[in-house]
Amino acid sequence: MADANAWLVRLQRDDVSGDDALDFEIWLAADAGNAVAYRRALALWHEFEASADAVLATLADDGRKLRAEVRRGPTRRWLAGAGGFAIAAGLAVAVVGPMVSEPSVQTYATGKGQHQRVTLADGSVVDLNAETRLSVSFSGKARQVTLGDGEAIFDVVHDAARPFTVAASSHTVRVVGTQFDVRNRGDDLSVTVARGKVEVRPTASSGRTFLLTPGQRLDVNRSGTGSLSAVDPQEAFGWRSGRLVYRAEPLANVVADLNRQYVQQIEVSDPQLGKMPITGVIVLDGQAAVITRLSLMLPIRSVPSAEGLLLLRK
Amino acid sequence: MVPAGSSGQVEPHGPLLDALIEKRESLLLFLAARTRCMATAEDLIQDLYLKVAAIDAEAEVRAPVALLYRMAANLMVDHVRSAQRASRRNGQWRMETATSLGGEDVAGDLPADEVVVARERIRQLADAVAALPPKMGQAFRLHKLEGQSQAETARAMGVSVKMIEQHIQAAMANLSQRLRS
User: Do B26 and A12 touch (CB under 8 A)?
Assistant: First the structure.
């Protein structure tokens, strides 16, 4: 995954381009922590920039002294700056008694524009996107979730004795402890993994089982064929912090996402316009502001219609 | 953002300018990767604003954000070229008259205790660079301290540009770990 220092270095490339700027913005927007980390890395980078000559002079001076001392013979000079060893100690103190309760089913649902965070009985956290339906059934042996139409990010607490499964349309996602996003909209199912390992198995006995590692996304189409791709999971998780990140996504799909977030519905009547690709970040604040942002990415304008808003070619 | 013109003038407008206002923050952080400090990055944003304002507001711009990003990248590359020339010219003067304190150049006539702090910081920075593994240290010196491009550094060390990027990235991680206080 791209981190702040990697970005700082990438932006030093001799052939840095507008595409780099766009990718950089997507990375910044994907997680609020990214800008903080980048500013911190940038502060040190600028500090070295401003004091480059003084640091070089000091290093050259040290080199001369060191050579002079070597000529004089053995010395007790110590190497300044050599860091001590850090010992990281991990502690685990959780003692969990056997669960004897009956499995109970709990259902959660969100409407248009609603996001909800749910903490499950085992401490796992689920973030529900808009228009999402999810039911949870826990027992002593299994943690089972069923995702109807919708999308959710799962941050699963590790428990080797009780695997965590998410059933979504034709497939079941199985994990032990991990963080991942499952999107089950219309005919398309996708699973994106940020941490840990995730198994995606077809519910039917036939079909291929996939094992996903961090940074991988599985897309399953309506015929059940799966394809793997490498992604930055932060992008798939963007909706949780009110940001949608797209790479060459057709306008029609983007509008479908937006229509789950706002009551006023957007319509694209021109099918050619609906196919135009969008790359970039859409911050979900006011709907009017969102439409303005779209018009900065594509040559479109909006007019009021019976349904809400109609998008037209400019 | 304040337009460069005086009062009474019609303010420039148009989709490019809207895009600049919308993307100002990420563009600032983008440009800052190649400037000496945040203030210089702010200056570059101002330059970008003037370039955008000079383009006719009614001009047909199909994808304003994409055009704006190309303009920003070009500006950044041009800035580095001219800054490197200026830096080689002014470097000597800067060393004699100024001390660096917390990343910003400050005038030479500082109170004695602040001069000591600045000297101590230079000492820390130099020690941290000296403690880097050899290849990492060499790449960092050539590229960051001596101001050579990634390609020049790669040629000097006889390795690929990709390898230089990896060295610099690892060096930054190492330095920030060591200098964290």
Answer: no
Tokens at B172, concatenated: 């930054």
- Picking from A20, A48, A59, the nearest residue to B144 by CB comes out as A48
Q: Is B86 on the interface with A (CB under 8 A)?
A: no
The verdict on residue A196 lying in a domain is yes
Q: Out of B33, B70, B100, name the one closest to residue A11 (CB).
A: B33
- Please indicate whether residue A65 or residue A158 has the higher confidence score (pLDDT): A158
Instruction: Give yes or no: residues A14 and A33 share one domain.
Output: yes
Closest CB to B69 among A22, A79, A83: A22
Query: Do A72 and A149 belong together in one domain?
Result: no
ipTM of the shown complex? 0.80
Per-residue pLDDT tens over the stretch B31-54: 999 988 899 999 999 999 988 888
Which one of B47, B65, B95 terminates a domain?
A: B95
Query: Which CA distances in Å does B100 have to A40, A43, A301?
Result: 18, 13, 51
Is the separation of the CB atoms in B84 and B147 below 8 Å? yes
Residues in A touching B35 (Cβ below 8 Å):
46
pLDDT one-digit tens code per residue, B70-86: 999 999 888 876 666 55
Q: Taking the model in full, what pTM does it have?
A: 0.65
If asked whether residues B80 and B140 sit together in one domain, one would say no
**Distant-in-sequence, close-in-space partners of A245: CB < 8 Å, separation ≥ 6:** A26, A29, A30, A235, A236, A238, A280, A281, A282
Range of the domain at A176: 105-232
- End residue of a domain, out of A199, A232, A265: A232
Give the domain-ending residue among B95, B128, B154: B95
Do B122 and B89 sit in the same domain of this protein? no
Distance from CA of A244 to the nearest CA of B (A): 15
Distance from CA of A295 to the nearest CA of B (A): 8
Smallest Cα distance from A13 to chain B, Å:
7
Beta carbons of B65 and A16 less than 8 Å apart: no
Kindly identify which residue of chain B lies nearest to residue A78, measuring between CA atoms: B127
Name which of B34, B105, B128 is nearest A12 (Cβ-Cβ). B34
Contact call for residues A193 and A211 (beta carbons, < 8 A): no
- Residues A116 and A128: their CA atoms lie apart, in Å, by 5
Q: Are residues B42 and B78 in the same domain?
A: yes
> Do the bridges between strand A265-268 and strand A308-313 make them parallel or antiparallel, or are there none, so unpaired?
parallel
Residue A237 lies in a domain: no
Angle A287-297/B64-97 helices, nearest 10 degrees? 90
Count of the separate structural domains present in chain B? 2
Per-residue pLDDT of chain B (181 residues; tens, 9 = 90+): 444 444 445 566 678 888 898 899 999 999 999 988 899 999 999 999 988 888 866 666 778 888 899 999 999 888 876 666 555 444 443 443 444 444 454 545 556 666 666 888 999 999 999 999 999 999 999 999 988 889 999 998 999 999 999 999 999 999 999 998 5
Q: What is the pLDDT of residue B7?
A: 46
Query: Measured between CA atoms, how close is A203 to chain B, in angstroms?
Result: 43
Which residue range is the domain that position B34 belongs to? 15-95
